[in-house]
């Protein structure tokens, strides 16, 4: 019954998205990076329900995140993401706390090195990026192996779009690296995105993020509101909403 409901949501979204927002608050696919960029001076505010299967093992329960993302220049994107902790997981229940009472906070940065088609028509876009690269805990450390820095990752991503008839297909390739003991993201990630002409606000995505396969879709509602749904490993649901504006 639950699987049927989720599939129905995916089909609904295909009639109800645009350039996908990464589940973690940056431009990209679902979890895997891409080399796509937002327009200059784009601001995004979003929040997600996050299934425990897509989070680091510290979150043994379903949780939520929210984020602020700003494309400061055409080649620079910065995001600030917060993921909620439960008091019980932090050992705070004896002190009278319960439910979501704390949060993990981290920055993400994306730099575009090459624009798609910049020097020749077949050239892919290339982006260098990182999420959660530094923690001030323990005196400060870059690329932690354990403790804080749960979502630490560094990557290089390439994206190329192809027209097949009237349809557009995006091909995305990236390499991810971190030093985490419990949440390794080391290896190649690939993805395909498809924007059908019959409903241009829809974007469908299939990806492998170096750990898992996922299917999802995003849809643009009312010119500014994006909805996203996904099935990690084809069965674990995660979804969210994002509001996007471009400042003049």
Write the layout of secondary structure elements.
Layout: H1 2-13, E1 42-50, E2 63-73, E3 76-86, E4 100-114, E5 125-131, E6 134-135, E7 141-142, E8 153-164, E9 167-177, E10 187-195, E11 202-208, E12 213-221, E13 225-232, E14 236-246
Antiparallel strand pairs: 1-2, 1-14, 2-3, 3-4, 4-5, 5-8, 6-7, 8-9, 9-10, 10-11, 11-12, 12-13, 13-14
Describe this structure in words.
The structure is a single chain. The protein has one helix at residues 2-13; strands at 42-50, 63-73, 76-86, 100-114, 125-131, 134-135, 141-142, 153-164, 167-177, 187-195, 202-208, 213-221, 225-232, 236-246. The chain is mainly beta and 248 residues long. A 12-stranded antiparallel barrel has the order 1-2-3-4-5-8-9-10-11-12-13-14. It has a two-stranded antiparallel ribbon with strand order 6-7. The relative contact order is 0.22.
């Amino acid at each position: 019954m639950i699987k049927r409901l989720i599939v129905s949501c995916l089909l609904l979204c295909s009639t109800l998205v645009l350039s996908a927002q990464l589940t973690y608050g940056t431009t990209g696919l679902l979890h895997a990076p891409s080399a796509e960029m937002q327009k200059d001076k784009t601001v995004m505010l979003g929040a997600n329900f996050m299934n425990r299967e897509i989070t680091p093992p510290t979150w043994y329960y379903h949780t939520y995140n929210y984020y602020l993302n700003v494309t400061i220049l055409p080649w620079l994107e910065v995001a600030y993401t917060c993921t909620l902790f439960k008091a019980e997981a932090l050992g705070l229940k004896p002190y009278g706390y319960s439910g979501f009472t704390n949060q993990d906070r981290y920055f993400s940065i994306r730099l575009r090195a090459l624009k798609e088609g910049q020097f020749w028509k077949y050239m892919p876009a290339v982006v260098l990026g990182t999420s959660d690269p530094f923690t001030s805990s323990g005196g400060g450390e870059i690329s932690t192996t354990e403790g804080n820095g749960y979502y630490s990752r560094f990557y290089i991503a390439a994206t190329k779009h192809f027209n097949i008839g009237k349809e557009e297909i995006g091909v995305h390739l990236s390499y991810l690296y971190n030093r985490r003991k419990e949440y390794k993201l080391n290896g190649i990630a690939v993805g395909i995105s498809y924007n059908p002409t019959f409903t241009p606000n829809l974007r469908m995505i299939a990806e492998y993020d170096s750990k898992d396969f996922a299917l999802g879709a995003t849809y643009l509602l009312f010119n500014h509101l994006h909805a996203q749904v996904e099935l990690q490993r084809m069965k674990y649901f995660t979804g969210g909403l994002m509001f996007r504006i471009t400042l003049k």
